[in-house]
Design goal:
alpha/beta, four-stranded parallel sheet, 8 strands, about 45% helix, about 10% strand
Length: about 300
């Protein structure tokens, strides 16, 4: 009888531990790590594979990342071929059936929003073009809202015991995000029509949302590094059609932007791009606050 009671106690403890354990989330990028934490609170344990100072296209599938994926219950990534150079290897090497493509533990944020810059044809001569469209969806707050709703539903599905918590946190986030988006739209109104030179196509959703205008790109083609001849052509173009600034993301080298800035007489401007890209961009709300604030400072 004593042995039976000990066995029942052990099974009960194991069941309690399983139900109360935090959902382990592996996020490919900081923006999704931040969103998962907003929605999950203390019911989730979130790890981000990248930082704001890393180019998410070019990440090494290190053993430490494989180990993290191996223990994950939910994988949250952008998709749209953004992580194609490293995520497939992590999934294969992890041997974790919970987070493979098609399983409930596999979540691609880009599947829940309309993409822009979808190419009519795929030709490698055009540069690093994504077949599914531009993957940098998080810089339109309307997209973040859509992804948040879908991710909250996925958390409910994976962890129904804590569904009430996820629902409450999702409702709270939705309300705060809606209010913040309305405020940002008003604050960003002076940016409409403002031309900027970009480094890469990673700011396209932000430019589209704010109504800004892309006045040129430091990359001659997407994914190809700036060349002296292309920068010289860009300088001549800007003499005819000036831009307000040359902008680049926190993970990009500032050298090409500084080169163009000196010759075209326009200011270089680093934008945080994602959570952690600047001191103010500590979460998703701070990210948009800082993006808009930095651009307004240049325009004014």
């Amino acid at each position: 009888m004593k042995a039976i009671l000990q066995l029942v106690a052990a099974l009960s403890f194991a069941s309690f531990s399983l139900s109360s354990a935090a959902i382990s989330i592996f996020a490919c990028e900081p923006e999704w790590s931040a969103l998962a934490q907003e929605l999950g609170g203390d019911k989730v344990s979130v790890y981000s594979a990248t930082t704001a100072l890393q180019d998410p296209h070019r990440i090494e599938a290190r053993p430490s990342l494989i180990a993290r994926v191996r223990s994950a219950d939910l994988l949250v990534c952008t998709g749209a071929e953004l992580e194609i150079g490293w995520l497939p290897l992590l999934l294969t090497q992890s041997g974790n059936s919970r987070i493979q493509l098609g399983s409930p533990g596999y979540f691609e944020a880009s599947q829940y929003v309309p993409k822009i810059e979808v190419p009519a044809t795929i030709d490698r001569s055009l540069g690093d073009v994504h077949a599914s469209g531009n993957p940098h969806i998080h810089l339109d707050p309307r997209n973040v809202a859509k992804v948040a709703d879908a991710l909250a539903e996925r958390l409910n599905q994976l962890d129904p015991a804590n569904a009430d918590t996820y629902k409450a946190r999702a409702n709270s986030f939705r309300e705060k995000w809606r209010a913040a988006t309305s405020r940002w739209e008003k604050e960003a109104a002076p940016l409409r029509g403002v031309p900027v030179v970009v480094y890469h196509k990673d700011l396209s959703y932000f430019i589209n949302w704010t109504g800004m205008r892309e006045g040129g790109s430091l990359e001659p083609k997407p994914g190809l590094p700036p060349t002296p001849s292309h920068l010289a052509e860009l300088v001549e173009k800007l003499k005819r059609d000036p831009a307000k600034a040359v902008v680049y993301s926190a993970y990009s080298s500032p050298r090409a932007a500084e080169f163009l800035s000196e010759r075209a007489k326009i200011p270089p401007l680093m934008l945080p791009f994602t959570v952690g890209g600047s001191e103010k961009a500590k979460d998703l709300f701070g990210l948009f606050d800082d993006m808009i604030g930095r651009l307004l400072a240049v325009v004014k």
